[in-house]
Design brief:
By secondary structure, the protein is mainly α. The protein is built from 23 helices and no strands.
Length: 486
């Protein structure tokens, strides 16, 4: 075992130990397992939601896009989602607190008085979470294999990481995710800052000099092209990600875990500062453009690690690998817990109302290894590049945004029938696109290129909203619970 592998193994053991210890002294009811008894303060809520920023997509996808797509990678530096969060998440928390909600689907059931809608939202959430968890596992395998210098195969790394994650999720639930997030965020900041600053200065003499060198070698590399990843794609993708950021089932669940609404407002203020550190990931990917040439296809996701292994000694590489490992395990644990809770509470319990809360809690925990095996099968079956999988998941969860906003309004313009039809229409478009790979040029071949570059997820959201309003206008309005003022 080389020193790099030993460091990675030590951090894996630490995360497993912390995850298991997090359950001490707690009665793990379903509410405690999923929301931490709604007792998390600003720091833990921050760490849980920060996990959505620094996943394996940050280490692999963002640096890979900086290497292979240039200026298009900057859509990841997005602050609009936190402006939305400042106003939206406290209202979601207050509604959840008032009605003792413990999942995203619970919100829809309560706000619209429809169990069928709750099941639909659970299914959409599960479909979105699968590719997102695949991202984490693929990333875990790539990171550990690369930074162990091939001593550990991707397959072995994925199996060991998944088993560790499953163990502490079953034992501690969201508490385990919160404890391991502390270690992860301290390590990730050190690695991102260190690598993102050192590489440009080491190879180019500075950050500005790096931009100039890359632009001279590849003119126009840092600008958006007229076609493809154009300004239309950039704006529609940025809006899609902003509106969907807090619509992921596991992020919705993390919102419920807050002690009070003020913790969420503080979180929305602090997260943009934390997100700015993604710039250093882009610096690292850009530094690799001229120093590690020739990466193509899915290989661009390796840019950060290829240049790091070329530059640093095995000890530093080991810490980089450990940080990457934790970027997979922490969000992965939240994802798999949310998926299991959605299935047990919002599908099984809805279809079998006689199921007790205790039985539901046991089923949720039992589903953790089941969903892990399903995701492992999908992971080993291949797939698209990291960022493309990431955006596909966003296409699904963003379909929930209009109905959430409507459900928090005193005079909700939507009916349960309208919401059901709108979400269904949007999700079908995203699903068909994922299967057939059609784009706007396929649908509207005679339209100009700026229309062709529109993100399909944004198109699906637009159709969703139109359908939702139309169906709501033609269906009988029913009173829906008003949102809690916070």
């Amino acid at each position: 075992m080389n020193i790099s592998t030993a460091i990675i193994a030590a951090f894996l053991a630490l995360s497993l130990g912390l995850g298991i210890m997090a359950s001490r002294g707690k009665e793990m009811s379903l509410e405690q397992w999923t929301t931490g008894g709604r007792g998390f303060g600003s720091i833990l809520v921050f760490l849980l939601m920060a996990g959505e920023i620094y996943t394996t997509n940050a280490f692999l996808g963002i640096s890979g896009w900086a290497y292979g797509k240039g200026g298009a990678a900057f859509f990841n530096i997005n602050m609009l989602n936190y402006v939305i969060a400042y106003w939206l998440t406290p209202k979601i928390w207050a509604y959840g607190k008032r009605h003792s909600l413990i999942s995203q689907s619970d919100f829809f059931v309560k706000a619209y008085g429809s169990n069928a809608l709750g099941i639909l939202v659970a299914v959409v959430g599960l479909v979105a979470l699968l590719p997102y968890l695949v991202i984490q596992l693929k990333g875990l395998g790539i990171i550990v294999s690369e930074t162990s210098y091939g001593a550990i195969s991707p397959t072995f790394a994925i199996w060991v990481g998944t088993i560790s994650m499953v163990i502490y999720v079953m034992v501690s639930g969201i508490h385990g995710s919160a404890w391991t997030a502390v270690v992860k965020d301290l390590l990730i900041l050190a690695v991102v800052l260190g690598v993102g600053l050192y590489l440009p200065y080491h190879y180019y003499g500075g950050i500005e000099a790096m931009w100039r060198a890359v632009e001279a070698a590849k003119p126009g590399f840092l600008t958006l092209p007229d076609k493809g990843f154009s300004a239309t794609w950039y704006i529609s993708t940025l809006l899609l990600v902003s509106l969907g950021f807090f619509m992921w089932p596991h992020t919705f669940l993390a919102t419920f875990s807050a002690k009070n609404a003020n913790a969420l407002r503080k979180n929305a203020i602090m997260l943009p500062i934390y997100a700015l550190f993604l710039l250093f990931v882009i610096f690292a990917g850009t530094a690799a453009v001229l120093e590690v040439p020739g990466l193509t296809g899915g290989g661009i996701d390796l840019a950060l690690f290829k240049i790091s292994m070329k530059t640093f000694n095995p000890v530093i590489v080991g810490f980089i690998g450990a940080a990457g490992l934790l970027t997979a395990i922490v969000p992965g644990s939240l994802i798999i817990m949310s998926a299991s809770a959605l299935f047990a509470k919002n599908i099984v319990k809805t279809l079998r109302p006689q199921t007790t809360d205790q039985q539901t809690a046991k089923l949720a925990k039992a589903m953790v290894p089941v969903f892990a095996l399903i995701t492992l099968y999908a992971t080993f079956g291949g797939g698209d590049a990291i960022t493309l999988l990431f955006l596909m998941g966003y296409g699904f969860v963003t379909q929930l945004t209009p109905a959430v906003i409507g459900g928090l309004m005193e005079n909700n313009p939507f009916t349960k029938e309208g919401v059901f039809a709108g979400i269904s229409a949007g999700a079908i478009i995203v699903a068909v696109q994922a299967i057939t790979k059609f784009n706007m040029s396929t649908l509207l071949p005679t339209f100009p290129s700026f229309v062709h570059d529109l993100n399909i997820g944004f198109l699906a959201l637009s159709v969703n909203i139109v359908v939702c309003f139309l169906v709501s206008a033609f269906t009988k309005r029913q009173a829906v619970p008003a949102a809690v003022k916070s």
